[in-house]
Specification:
By secondary structure, the protein is of the alpha/beta class. It has a domain of 163 residues: Rossmann fold. Helix content is 35%, strand content 19%. The protein is built from 8 helices and 7 strands. The chain has a 7-stranded mixed sheet, with helices on both faces. Helix 5 links the parallel strand 2 and strand 3. It is globular, with a radius of gyration of 17 Å. It starts with 8 loop residues before the first helix and ends in a 6-residue tail after the last strand. The model has no long low-confidence stretch (mean pLDDT 90).
Length: 241
């Protein structure tokens, strides 16, 4: 799962026993060599769905990490692109790799933008927010978008209970809950806390109309349903409160 350029087991343990922010600061130099970076296949499939909806003007990558989302945004946007993350280490890496974009350090639960963007995306970040925190996240993205703007992010279908992936994700979440019950500061990262039904309801409450599109390039499950969907949350066509 890790390339030779990736972190050692010791480095991963130190990261996991840190706060989320400090953990990603430590992991940043080697993050792109881990399976935690959003795969190019997911980025490319997202771009395929968004391309017919563009081109877009200014865009925002929420919880941008080292800037992998630039693979999606750069070809689709005519205006400036901004990435926001709370890890200084991840942003430093993003600045070196993509010097033409703007990179802002901020907590995604309190985004410092208002009516600035036509498109916002996020990749692999929802698990870092507890369910009680997602309304603030979605409300902040809503405020950051212009009327008629779009917030898009991929979300995987839950694996069947008979699959190894189901039990691996459940085991990870249980281990993280035990870790956070016994160790401070907490490291928030869970796989099974953001079902699509809850996310849709929270986005609607924040002022979005929500549809989904299958990311067909990522394949289908045995029952024929897509392995991954792209959530497409459009702002209702008036300014955010």
């Amino acid at each position: 799962m890790f390339s030779p350029q990736g972190p050692s087991l010791r480095e991963l343990v130190v990261q996991a026993l840190s706060s989320v922010e400090r953990g990603y600061d430590l992991l940043a130099p080697k993050f792109d060599h881990t399976p935690f970076r959003t795969p190019d296949s997911v980025l490319d499939a997202t771009a395929d769905v968004l391309r017919p909806l563009g081109p877009f003007g200014q865009a925002l990558d929420v919880c941008c990490g080292t800037g992998a989302g630039m693979r999606v945004l750069a070809p689709l946007c005519r205006g400036p692109i901004t990435g926001v993350d709370f890890s200084a280490g991840m942003l430093a890496r993003a600045r070196r790799t993509h010097p033409d974009a703007a990179w802002v350090q901020a907590d995604a639960r309190a985004l410092p933008f208002a009516g600035s963007f036509d498109l916002a995306v996020s990749f692999g970040a929802l698990g870092h927010f507890l369910p009680a925190e997602r309304p603030a996240l979605f409300a902040g993205v809503r405020r950051a978008l212009r009327p008629g703007g779009l917030f898009a992010f991929p979300i995987g279908a839950p694996p069947p209970v008979t699959s190894g992936m189901y039990w691996a994700m459940l085991g990870f979440d249980l281990a993280m809950r035990a870790r956070n019950a016994l160790w401070r500061p907490p490291f928030v990262m869970y796989y099974n806390t953001c079902p699509l039904s809850a996310v849709r309801a929270e986005l609607a409450a924040a002022g979005f109309t929500v549809t989904t599109a299958p990311l067909t390039a990522l394949g289908r499950r045995e029952d024929g349903s897509p392995r991954c969907l792209l959530v497409l949350a459009h702002t209702i066509n008036h300014p955010a409160p």
